[in-house]
Amino acid sequence: MLRDITLGQYYQTESVVHRLDPRVKLIATVIFIISLFVVNNFWGYLLAALFLAGMIKLSHVPFKFMIKGMKAILFLLILTVVFNLFLTPGEPLISLWKLTITKEGLRTAVFMAVRLSFLIIGSSVMTLTTTPNNLTDGMESLLKPLKRIHVPVHEISMMMSIALRFIPILLEETDKIMKAQIARGADFESGNLIKKAKSMVPLLVPLFISAFRRANDLAMAMEARCYRGGEGRTKMKPLIYKKRDYTAFAVLGLYLAAAVLTVLIP
């Protein structure tokens, strides 16, 4: 289950999407996520599906690897669908005991499931095709105007990048601790939900200790290298927009225009 979480991982391969400027991918991801919450009909979600499928195809990342991250939010997805299905008022379709499935509830549940799925997969496309260093540089460049109001842009970007980078590391550490405790007789599978939650407590304590130790080692390593923040620092590989990036912006503009048109469709 833990190995199925793909957020924060980088998939090494050669593709057009991998070579794009990280700023392009960050802007595209933000616009795609916003479009998912703006569109409200079948044509809008069909457009989003086609756009996402095209990006996955161009990224050369296997689709099976891409959807592995969906297993981690399956419970949240089912819970969201059930709540929208039974708690949305409207025209009744099916009555089950005291619960009623309405036409509006069915529509909302389907759209919410599609929206969450596209959101996770779309975010995974960005993280799987962008290295943490490039992600940091891209976020710092996009947030640069905030420096005028004394926002620590470099530090914020670095923290977000480190957080993403630590996700697969902590998952691997969790897997090792779990296997070690299973070998000593621990049981994480049997019992009801409350018992399973209690069985996770011995797992969380060593995990937190490991996380704090890694954070302390990272801080000491940065201090040993005389890290003093982003002021005055130069970059070995400065970000420069290329022809393919302007082409990507043009495609993104067409997608945004098409998404707006779908909203206007009655």
Automatic annotation (TrEMBL):
Pfam families on file: CbiQ
Record bears the keyword Membrane: yes
Annotated GO CC locations: plasma membrane
Alphabetized GO MF terms: transmembrane transporter activity
Ranges that cross the membrane: 26-53, 65-87, 108-129, 149-171, 246-265
Compartment list: Cell membrane
UniProt keywords, alphabetically: Cell membrane, Membrane, Transmembrane, Transmembrane helix, Transport
Its membrane topology: Multi-pass membrane protein
Keyword Cell membrane: yes
Similarity field: Belongs to the energy-coupling factor EcfT family.
HAMAP family according to UniProt: EcfT (MF_01461)
Summary of the function given for this chain in its UniProt record: Transmembrane (T) component of an energy-coupling factor (ECF) ABC-transporter complex. Unlike classic ABC transporters this ECF transporter provides the energy necessary to transport a number of different substrates.
The protein's assembly and partners: Forms a stable energy-coupling factor (ECF) transporter complex composed of 2 membrane-embedded substrate-binding proteins (S component), 2 ATP-binding proteins (A component) and 2 transmembrane proteins (T component).
Designated name of the protein: Energy-coupling factor transporter transmembrane protein EcfT
Species per Swiss-Prot/TrEMBL record: Eisenbergiella tayi
